[in-house]
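Anyone up for a design puzzle?
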């Protein structure tokens, strides 16, 4: 049984002073009012135990139990420290009085339990979200391969003048990266996607997501998280960017943050579905 221990902060704390402080708290709990420590023993002496007890405790204890607890409080409040019980003696005295174990505090205090709010409905996860929640990187890879670049629409508006040889080389690097990603050569995919990204003429959230997953599969969660965050910067309401962040955060053992990202991604998925349905 846990023992409530308190001590005045403006005094030097000793084992004996802690026991004395416990006695004052015990008496306050029993009587239902604050009794100055200097008057505590005078209050106890010559009083009927039942008259000392808080009326709210009526029926919660037997007269024998009440007498024993008051007696214990008086021992704790003795003026001479050597006459007070030690912690082991307190436990030995209180343990037999604990007849109800593992009873919720609201039942012991006679308080009606507040009804718990019903759990909010769980948002359904997309296939990518489900794979992410299970940390099934293989399934995540298959989904990113299948979705290709359909979510990149509108992220780049290039003029005719920008279709230079450099641009063609950059797109060729992305194509090589796609082939390596499809074939699960993730180190090669990272290299090729990096060539595409470093040129900077085009930005592609899908490339960042694919390179993020490639980093995860190469056990590089920090780099994976950076790429997933870059994907979000390019496409702020793209659920995939949040799912990739959730996966990277899970790998980094940041599980609370990962759960928040999963919820955010699911909310964005739901918003997207509502937009399509309207």
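Challenge accepted. My sequence:
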């Amino acid at each position: 049984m846990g023992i409530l221990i308190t001590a005045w902060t403006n005094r030097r704390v000793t084992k004996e002073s802690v026991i004395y402080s416990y006695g004052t708290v015990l008496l306050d709990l029993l009587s239902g009012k604050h009794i100055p420590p200097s008057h505590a023993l005078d209050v106890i002496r010559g009083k009927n135990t039942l008259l000392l007890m808080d009326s709210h405790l009526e029926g919660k204890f037997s007269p024998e139990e009440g007498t024993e607890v008051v007696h214990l409080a008086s021992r704790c409040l003795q003026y001479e420290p050597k006459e007070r019980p030690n912690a082991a003696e307190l436990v030995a005295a209180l343990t037999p009085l604990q007849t109800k174990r593992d009873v919720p505090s609201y039942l012991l205090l006679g308080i009606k339990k507040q009804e718990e709010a019903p759990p909010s409905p769980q948002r359904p996860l997309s296939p990518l979200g489900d794979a992410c929640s299970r940390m099934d990187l293989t399934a995540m890879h298959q989904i990113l391969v299948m979705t290709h670049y359909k979510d990149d629409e509108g992220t780049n508006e290039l003029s005719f003048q920008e279709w230079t040889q450099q641009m063609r080389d950059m797109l060729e690097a992305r194509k090589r990266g796609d082939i390596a990603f499809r074939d699960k050569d993730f180190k090669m995919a990272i290299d090729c996607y990096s060539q595409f990204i470093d040129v900077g003429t085009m930005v592609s959230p899908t490339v960042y997501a694919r390179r993020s997953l490639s980093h995860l599969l190469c056990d590089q969660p920090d780099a994976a998280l950076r790429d997933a965050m870059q994907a979000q910067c390019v496409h702020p309401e793209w659920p995939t960017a949040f799912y990739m962040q959730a996966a990277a955060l899970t790998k980094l053992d940041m599980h609370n943050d990962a759960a928040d990202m999963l919820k955010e991604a699911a909310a964005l998925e739901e918003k997207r579905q509502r937009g399509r349905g309207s």
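A detail worth pointing out: The longest helix spans residues 255-277.
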